[in-house]
Design brief:
This protein is of the alpha/beta class. Among the domains are: 127 residues, Leucine-rich repeat, LRR (right-handed beta-alpha superhelix), CATH 3.80.10.10; 139 residues, Leucine-rich repeat, LRR (right-handed beta-alpha superhelix) (Alpha-Beta Horseshoe); 122 residues, Alpha-Beta Horseshoe (Leucine-rich repeat, LRR (right-handed beta-alpha superhelix)); 184 residues, 3-Layer(aba) Sandwich (Rossmann fold), CATH 3.40.50.10140. Helix content is 21%, strand content 13%. The protein has 19 helices and 43 strands. The strands form seven sheets. The protein has a 17-stranded parallel sheet, with no helix packed on it. The protein has a twelve-stranded mixed sheet with strand order 1-2-3-5-7-8-9-10-11-12-13-14, with no helix packed on it. Strands 40-39-41-42-43 form a five-stranded parallel sheet, sandwiched between helices. The protein is elongated and about 130 Å long. The structure holds 2-acetamido-2-deoxy-beta-D-glucopyranose (3 copies). One 2-acetamido-2-deoxy-beta-D-glucopyranose binds next to helix 3.
């Protein structure tokens, strides 16, 4: 098909604008599926103009996210046409300027996120219209202060987050929020506040959560009742804040207070403050050893019972069975994370604290969990959750949890456990969740989980288990989730998975399984819903196997993507037989050679299918391959090397709403294939080398006029032939010629020819003549090919000159190039032309059998017709064949004016350097002439090294490689 002519461009532009109105695509945004033109994401775009994002969003827009763009400025009225907006996220841009009327009209806006930008100043009226705003985040900007009255109209504001700015003056902040009677949460962490001093304002009664962490507070400096209504107060990491600062400050309602990394001394603080001591988080307050005992005594004086005692980050190294005896009864959580504990000694530090419900000892230095089947071990019947994550535990001995039989959640993950005694978990009959992931386990025994018959979730991810022995899980009849991802499993013994009769989710990804043994799944074939086999070593060589999934009638999710090292290779046509309940299937990165047309036939419930990069090379989607997938809603056939497909491929996908066809290699897409998808809502055809030809007229029409199908970033898609042109508005009028137009065009062509031919004759006389001679000589060449071959490049240079300049040629040029040690072979017409042959033939032969043509240019030369032909021939070789054959030698200085009537000569002069013969009138003619000959010899030699023996003159290497490069960039879509 011919490429389209561009001469109707202006008409196309007008048409394009009109068409824009009906197309369903957005320049820089993507509408969320099923959001009914309400939710839009505009992310990772380079556009710096605000209107480029908002201009084409519809009135109905409710949620808009514009993130990770290069935006710096929100100009006035940016959202004036979007009065229904409720959620606006503009985080992670480069915003620094926001105009006064930027958010005008957004009366419905509830949520505004401007975090992670560069805002250092705000206009005091900028939020004026946002009466309904409830959430505002200005996190991570450069705000120093707030202009007075900035929040004056935000009477519905509930949450205000101004973390990570550079604010120093609390007075201004207190003033700005004092009237916000609905404000509940105020976050001012990571600023430079030094005190909470304020003039006459008070905080609104509604404000109960106040974050002031990581400032430079050295005092509170506020009125007695200023913090009266606060429930949650975070003052952590104000390193200069002393206990004295709290003198007289009413903290009666505080139920969670963080004081970590301040200068507050606990004892002093408990004396001064009226805060309920049971509501203080004692983490990071330097409480260890004797201090801890003292704290307990102090607490006990005030309280009989304490719910949670939080002691993380205190550098505690040792806890004896006396330490916590003096504390009030702990009934909830004891938090000991991030200390330096090296032993837990069967938790005997909890003697006298047997009501603890949850113990958290993460991030300590524990190296082992010893056996606790001792007579004097404390019996902790209330302990239900125990976490030892992030320690250095290497061994877990037998009966390690004998004294804590009621644990429901046990976290031993992220340790170095290599030795888990086969009786280590004995007695844990209530255990529901067990985390053993990220350890060094190699073996599991048939009695390891013997007592854990209530276990529901077992996580063994990232260990070094290679074989699953018979009977390992025989007691785990209640287990629903088993995670074996990232181990080294090569096989299961025949009854390795027996007993798992409730198993629903089985993760086996990242192991070394080579095949799928269906007999293993027998005992949970009626309960399994998820099977993850991603990144194993499964591959097939033959088409015919029996389906390993035949009886997995409940299976909903199956992952088979990325088999190592080379993928599945063959996808047996019977592979998925029996999977009638399957809803999602992952097959990406598998080097599959061929998709049989019946391979998906049993997957009648399938909703999601990804074949992204599943195959090798060019993939043929066979007609009917998806014929039974009537429930499929999302299909990803990205990057599959699809070259073409027919309507029949997508035939029965009546529920399909998302189709990702991007990154394939077809030049056209049959619009009728898309039209046969009645529920299609979202179409991604980016990065396909679509040609802007009549073949795609229907596709263009489809993408522009289908009000239901969003075509992702349609207006950015370019034509394959020339990225300056856009696909959506390429000119299709030429594809719809009717008879009238046809007659009109043919008449026009005839008139055109009659008008232009005489002109062309004058203008292109030489070109025609040249073509005629070239043709003639080519014709005669065919007759005498053998002779021609030896004639080729017979000469180093053909000298073209006017007989008027013959004297110079004979006396100067010949001796200097043929003699004088140069030994060039020159072709001179008076000497080397064949007698009796047509002069034109002689010239053609001479030019084509010499590596260079030297034109000796003088006024007389320019006037000579024959010489002109010689220049034409040589310059055609220069321009058209890209062979650098022409050398110009100017015998006398010629002015611009004298050259002006010789266009072609001027064109050559602009393109090439030329040599000027230094006449006798220059100061040192001998030396200048020596230089001239040297330059000329060099010029004749250039390129001569590249001449190969068998076919004479070859184009210089550089041009060749350029040519090749161009070729490959044209074809870059064809990569495997
Ligand atoms: C808009 O965003 C809100 C909050 O994220 C969400 O609850 C709501 O469903 C979204 N609306 C639409 C139409 O997507
Ligand atoms: C806030 O939104 C409600 C509906 O969501 C609307 O009725 C009301 O007018 C808005 N309030 C203001 C002050 O615009
Ligand atoms: C803090 O801001 C208030 C007004 O908001 C102003 O009166 C006061 O001078 C400021 N203090 C400092 C130290 O800048």
């Amino acid at each position: 098909m011919a490429t389209r002519p561009h001469h109707l461009l202006s008409a196309t532009v007008v048409l394009g604008v009109v068409r824009l109105m009906c197309g369903y695509s957005f320049h820089n945004c993507i509408e969320d599926l099923y959001s009914n033109r309400q939710s839009f994401h505009c992310i990772h775009r380079k556009e710096t103009d605000m209107f480029a994002y908002t201009r084409d969003l519809p009135l109905s827009a409710v949620n808009v996210t514009i993130s990770n763009t290069y935006l710096r400025h929100i100009p006035k009225d940016s959202f004036a046409h979007l009065p229904n907006l409720q959620n606006l996220k503009m985080d992670h841009n480069f915003l620094s300027r926001i105009d006064r009327f930027a958010f005008q009209n957004l009366h419905q806006l509830k949520f505004l996120n401007l975090s992670f930008n560069n805002i250092s100043e705000l206009n005091c009226f900028v939020f004026e219209d946002l009466h309904n705003l409830t959430f505002l985040s200005l996190t991570k900007n450069k705000l120093k202060q707030l202009p007075e009255g900035i929040f004056s109209t935000l009477l519905n504001l509930d949450t205000l987050i101004m973390r990570q700015n550079v604010m120093t003056n609390f007075t201004g902040i207190a003033k700005s929020v004092s009237h916000l009677t609905n404000l509940r949460i105020l976050d001012l962490c990571f600023n430079h506040l030094t005190s909470l001093s304020h003039s006459n304002e008070s905080l609104p009664k509604s404000l109960t959560v106040l974050y002031l962490c990581r400032n430079d507070l050295y005092t509170l400096g506020c009125k007695h009742s200023f913090l009266r209504y606060i429930n949650l107060l975070d003052l952590s990491y104000n390193s200069k804040l002393p206990a004295m600062a709290f003198a007289g400050v009413d903290l009666r309602h505080v139920n969670y207070l963080r004081l970590r990394s301040t200068s507050v001394k606990v004892a002093e603080f408990l004396n001064i403050s009226n805060v309920n001591a049971g509501h203080i988080d004692f983490s990071g307050m330097g409480i260890k050893n004797n201090m801890l005992i003292e704290l307990c005594r102090l607490l006990k004086r005030k309280l009989k019972v304490i719910k949670n005692l939080r002691l993380s980050n205190n550098g505690i190294e040792m806890l004896t069975n006396k330490t916590l005896r003096h504390c009030p009864k702990i009934t909830g959580t004891l938090e000991l994370s991030r200390n330096n504990l090296q032993h837990s000694i069967c938790l005997n530090f909890l003697s006298g604290q047997n009501q603890v419900n949850r113990l958290d000892a993460e991030h300590n230095h524990l190296t082992s969990i010893p056996s606790c089947k001792q007579k004097n071990a404390v019996y902790l019947k209330n302990l239900e959750e125990l976490s030892y994550r992030y320690n250095r535990i290497l061994t877990v001995s037998r009966d390690a949890f004998y004294h804590t039989p009621n644990i429901k959640t046990l976290k031993l993950n992220i340790n170095n456990i290599a030795f888990l005694h086969r009786k280590a978990l004995k007695g844990l009959k209530q255990l529901v969740t067990l985390r053993l992931d990220n350890n060094l386990l190699t073996d599991l025994f048939n009695d390891t989980f013997e007592d854990n018959f209530n276990l529901q979730v077992l996580n063994l991810r990232k260990n070094r288990i290679s074989v699953i022995f018979n009977g390992t899980f025989r007691s785990l009849g209640n287990l629903t989730t088993l995670d074996f991802g990232g181990n080294k499993i090569t096989h299961f013994q025949p009854s390795g998975l027996d007993g798992l009769k409730s198993l629903s989710k089985l993760y086996l990804d990242g192991n070394n399984l080579k095949q799928i043994d269906s007999s293993l799944y027998r005992c949970f074939q009626d309960t399994l819903t998820t099977l993850d086999l991603q990144s194993n070593q499964i591959h097939f060589h033959k088409e015919k196997i029996s389906s390993p999934f035949l009886n997995l009638t409940k299976l909903r999710d199956l992952k088979l993507d990325g088999q190592r090292p080379h993928g599945l290779i063959v996808l047996p046509r019977t592979f998925f037989r029996g999977l009638h309940s399957l809803q999602s299937l992952y097959l990406t990165n598998n080097n599959i050679g061929y998709l049989a047309p019946d391979v998906f036939d049993d997957l009648t419930s399938l909703r999601f299918l990804t074949l992204d990069n599943c195959c090798v090379g060019v993939t043929q989607l066979k007609p009917g391959v998806f014929k039974n997938l009537q429930n499929l809603t999302k299909l990803i056939v990205e990057n599959m090397g699809i070259q073409n497909f027919s309507k029949k491929v997508f035939g029965n996908l009546t529920q399909l709403h998302t189709l990702q066809l991007n990154r394939n290699v077809m030049q056209s897409i049959p619009a009728d294939a898309l039209e046969s998808l009645p529920k299609l809502r979202y179409l991604d055809i980016r990065d396909i080398p679509l040609s802007c030809t009549c073949e795609n007229t229907l596709l263009q029409n489809y993408t522009l006029h289908n009000p239901n199908v969003q075509v992702v970033y349609l207006y950015n898609m370019t034509c394959q032939s020339d990225s300056k042109f856009k696909f959506y508005n390429f000119d299709t009028n030429v594809c719809y010629l009717d008879l009238g137009q046809y007659l009109f065009f043919s008449t026009a062509v005839v008139i055109f020819l009659f008008t232009v031919t005489p002109l062309l004759y004058v203008k292109l006389y030489w070109k025609m003549k040249y073509s005629y001679y070239v043709f003639r000589s080519w014709f005669s060449e065919q007759w005498s090919r053998l002779r021609e071959k030896e004639e080729k490049c017979k000469y180093d240079a053909f000298i073209s000159y006017n007989s008027f300049d013959e004297q110079w040629v004979m006396e100067q040029l010949m001796p200097n190039l043929e003699g004088n040690g140069s030994n060039f072979k020159l072709c001179l017409h008076h000497r080397d032309f064949e007698l009796g042959r047509d002069i034109v033939d002689n010239i053609v032969t001479a030019v084509y059998s010499s590596r260079k043509t030297i034109c000796v240019v003088s006024r007389k030369f320019l006037q000579s017709e024959w010489c002109s032909l010689e220049i034409q021939l040589a310059s055609y070789r220069l321009f058209d064949e890209h062979r650098d054959v022409l050398l110009l030698v100017f015998l006398e200085p010629l002015s611009e004016r004298q050259l002006s009537s010789y266009h072609r000569m001027r064109k050559i002069m602009l393109k090439k350097t030329y040599l000027q013969w230094p006449g006798s009138d220059c100061t040192d003619p001998i030396q200048a002439q020596d230089l001239f000959w040297n330059q000329l010899r060099r010029a004749i030699r250039t390129g001569s090294t590249l001449v190969t023996e068998e076919n004479g003159c070859v184009a210089p290497e550089k041009e060749k490689s350029e040519h090749v490069e161009k070729h490959t960039t044209d074809k870059y879509y064809l990569q495997p």
